[in-house]
Amino acid sequence: MHDDHELVRLVGKLDLPAKVRLLAGGSVWQSCAEPLVGLRAMTFSDGPAGVRGPGWDERRTSLALPSPSALAATWDEDLVERLGGLLAAEARRKDVDVLLAPVLNLHRTPYGGRHFECFSEDPLLTARLGVAYVRGVQAGGVAATPKHFVANETETDRLTHDVLVGERALREVYLAPFEAAVEAGAWAVMSAYNAVNGHSMSESPMLTSPLKDEWGFDGLVVSDWGAVRTTVASAVSGQDLSMPGPWGPWGERLVAAVEAGEVPEALVDDKVLRLLRLAARVGALEGTTAVVPSLVEPLGADERLLREAVSSSTVLLRNNGVLPLAPGLSTAVIGPGATAARVQGGGSSGLYPSAENSLLDALTRRTGTVHAPGLRIDDRPTPVDAPVLVRVLGADDEVLFREHRLTGRILETREVPGAEVLEISTALHVTRTGAWRLAVAGYGRLTLDVDGVRVLDVVQPVDTDDPAVKHLRPPHHDVEVPLTEGTVVEVVARRELGEDTGMASMLAADPPPPAHDEFAAAVEAAKRCDVAVVVVSTTDAIESEGRDRHTLALPGGQDVLVGAVCAVNPNTVVVVNSGGPVLMPWRGQAAAVLLTWFPGQEGGGGLADVLFGDREPGGRLPTTWPAEEVDVPVKDFLPVAQKLPYEEGLDIGYRAWAATNVAPAYWFGHGLGYTTWDYEEARVERDVVRVRVRNTGHRPGREVVQVYLSRPDSAVVRPARWLAGFAAVTAGPGESVEAVVEIPRRAISHWAGEWVVEPGAFTVLAGPNAGDTRLRLERENALLSW
Predict the structure, then answer these.
(1) Calpha distance 80→283 (Å, rounded)
(2) Active site residue ranges
């Protein structure tokens, strides 16, 4: 490893244009190389629920982890750290140096469209799991990149909105997880698109203080892709690397600004030094090698870890005793998500899973099942799921490039000079007579031909600057075409390749609906079977990067379906497949309710383990779930005239609920297992709260003991209660065990220009969730020591 003296010497070997060139990407997913100092290009990849690698190609698959909201539901730092190690190994297999994860933004409201990529609504839980993630990834020689610094909780107008937030809330709530990640040694941090208190984050003074000066961050600040939009203002801030490249507002313009005295060259030198320091850490600098574990995992270890993560993150909200399922029961498996579950959310974190593991397949291997979809919940066209031919055409339809792909959704293919048209074609095998819905997506002129006959010809203008929409989810246009079962027709979709329109295109085909009533068939199947398992889901249109949610209701009549199934089968288990909260008006009718989040590729097998009792549902809620939409306490989540005030201050999530007289459906921290627990005693010793709990059930189990603090008579405004620490314990039937919950000094501190501890008594509350703190103690903070 090079020390800083050697890195400074290497910086001194470069002239100004060479130094500035290093501060923008060499391509979309790589930094620039510089042979003069022995620097190779570093490769970046999106996370956080897997390592996609550069670009999108369904032929390059990746291990798909549970979503971060699921990882947070484990309340298990050791498990998250082990999963970080798995991500590092995956990154090294893909020659990735920098993983753009974890996301440390908070669940400010349940309406956030990117909820699934963030851990939780609480800064302490987010900080502890974020630190575990960073440590696991970086122990494998790969840089972790906590993002999006900072206050990036809303997707609407995310490129331009300005968050107005008080200094105390900023420090105690939104900056706290980033501070913890920096203290844990994160090698990079990503600046966000949004502005905070008048400064775009790529130009924010916070990149210097507190990030670099106060916290001592010695790593690299990389921009979100396209977030650097100015030359001087961003260069004089703590922004270090502008991605992607080589285009952008730095380059020659930054050289000119330095020569004109508008940007000190010392700032450029510091940015290059940080880039070289990162390169040395990941082994991208000549003479350095990333320190990586030499362990060889046994065959199947990755899949077993992912399956363990599913059961550990599954939250059992309700159970009347139907779970775990008894062997030999006939089971109706209902809902399209039982065969095609959402294993991940939409947007830049998307990848192509290396395996598929449906709940129906997993249950069929264990018991007699019948599947009935019941309904269709997503009205967006379905990409062709068959081999397609992709051609890039130039003038006069000259073929510049061609390749065979596995799906009709093409986000990237080879870019070639002179490209004018992208064409996707396939031989469509017609499986049902009737009006098929055919669709094409993209920007520019879009055409669709069926057996040489043009059935669609439209122009889709560019209507957004959001890269998630432009490059991942462009608008579609569809048409109905009558087709006959048993025939094969040639379907050809074309789109223009205009300037700044991206490459993303789609050819989709949906058959006409079946002649029978799928809803009635599902209810009848539930009526005939011993148990009904109903999988309900959100869609890519509801939970995705680049958009927020405007209702928490499930789409497509799923609530009606669940109610109908519960009415005919008292043993109905509902599985909720979503990244964040949804309304569950039927929750009192269901025999059991399980949250499986976006569970990753081992979701089916992991959930079956829970249903049959091979593993306990280990999850606890990382965010509060409302009973009614009107009850949600933080409702102002959309910017108005580009301004987004965080008027609730410190009170988000359970803190906001605790300040009202309305109870949620399920509190932060809630989760049942297959046993029960009695909280017997709590006591304070120095900086530790010791809580004795007893397993009062008939099975061994794990309990997450949570400690909250309260200060009703405080001289400063505080939440009604706030999480101060937690610890998990395990015990057999009838056994008691002591949870040792460490309380950091920061838990009793507040920000007043510096961290201050108010003298006097804090109330210590201990229990299984934020709404059930059944043990209560009061202690003078003077009796606590750190």
Answers:
(1) 24
(2) 224
The pair of structure tokens assigned to 725 is 């620490």
3-state secondary structure 352-375: CECCCCCHHHHHHCCCCEEEECCC
Distances (CA, A) of 410 to 2, 62, 387, 539, 664: 42, 17, 12, 20, 42
Closest CA to 21 of 332, 268, 270, 215: 268
Q: Which residues pair with residue 474 across a beta bridge? A: none
Which regions of the chain carry the CATH code 3.20.20.300? Answer: 4-54+62-282
3-state class (DSSP) for residue 559: helix
Average pLDDT (6-27) is 98
Q: What is the pLDDT of residues 469-504, one digit of tens each?
A: 888 999 999 999 999 999 999 999 999 998 888 899
Beta bridge partners of 333: 371, 533
760's CB contacts (< 8 A; 6+ apart) are 711, 713, 714, 780, 781
In whole angstroms, give the CA distance from residue 145 to residue 126: 15
The sign one gets for the Cα dihedral 338, 67, 602, 90 is positive
The answer as to CATH 3.40.50.1700 being correct for domain 302-376+516-645 is yes
Cβ 737 vs Cβ 729: under 8 Å = yes
Sequence-separated contacts (24+) of 750-753 with Cβ below 8 Å: 750/168, 750/172, 750/716, 750/718, 751/167, 751/168, 751/171, 751/172, 752/168, 752/716
β-pairing, 195-196 vs 162-164, is parallel
What CATH number should be reported for the domain whose range is 388-510?
2.60.120.260
Of residues 253, 185, 250, 255, the one with CA closest to residue 223: 250
Residue 90 to residue 95: CA distance in whole angstroms: 9
Q: Which residue intervals of the chain bear CATH 2.60.120.260?
A: 388-510
Place of tokens 């290396």: 354
Residues 6+ apart with CB under 8 A from 513: 376
Predicted pLDDT of residue 782: 42
* Residue 32: strand pairing partners: none
**Start-to-end Cα distance in the chain:** 34
Quick check: 784 and 743 in contact, CB under 8 A?
A: yes
Domain with CATH 3.40.50.1700 in the chain: 302-376+516-645
Q: Which CATH number fits domain 675-783: 2.60.40.10, 3.20.20.70, 2.20.70.10, 1.20.120.80?
A: 2.60.40.10
Which amino acid is residue 529, in one-letter code? C
Provide the residue type at 465 as one letter: D
C-alpha to C-alpha distance for 333 and 360, rounded to whole angstroms:
7
- Return d(Cα 645, Cα 208) in angstroms, integer: 23
Q: Which residue has the tokens 């022995």?
A: 38
User: DSSP label at 334?
Assistant: E
Give span(s): CATH 2.60.40.10, the chain. Answer: 675-783
Q: Determine how many CB atoms are found less than 10 A away from the CB of residue 782.
A: 10
Pick the CATH number of 4-54+62-282 from 1.10.3720.10, 2.40.30.30, 3.20.20.300, 3.10.50.30: 3.20.20.300
pLDDT in tens, 22-36: 999 999 999 999 999
On whether the CB atoms of residues 270 and 12 are closer than 8 A, the answer is no
Cα separation of 409 and 757, whole Å?
56
Q: How confident is the model at residue 670 (pLDDT cuts 50, 70, 90)?
A: very high
Cβ atoms < 10 Å from Cβ of 529? 21
What is the pTM (predicted TM-score) of this model?
0.97
3-class SS at 694? strand
At 341 the pLDDT is: 86
125 phi and psi, to 5 degrees?
-60, -45
Rounded distance between C-alpha atoms, residue 637 and residue 551, angstroms: 12
Q: Where are the beta strands (DSSP E) in 384-530?
A: 388-393, 399-405, 409-410, 421-429, 434-441, 444-450, 453-460, 476-483, 488-496, 505-510
Residue of 506, 485, 495, 477 lying closest to 428 (CA atoms): 485
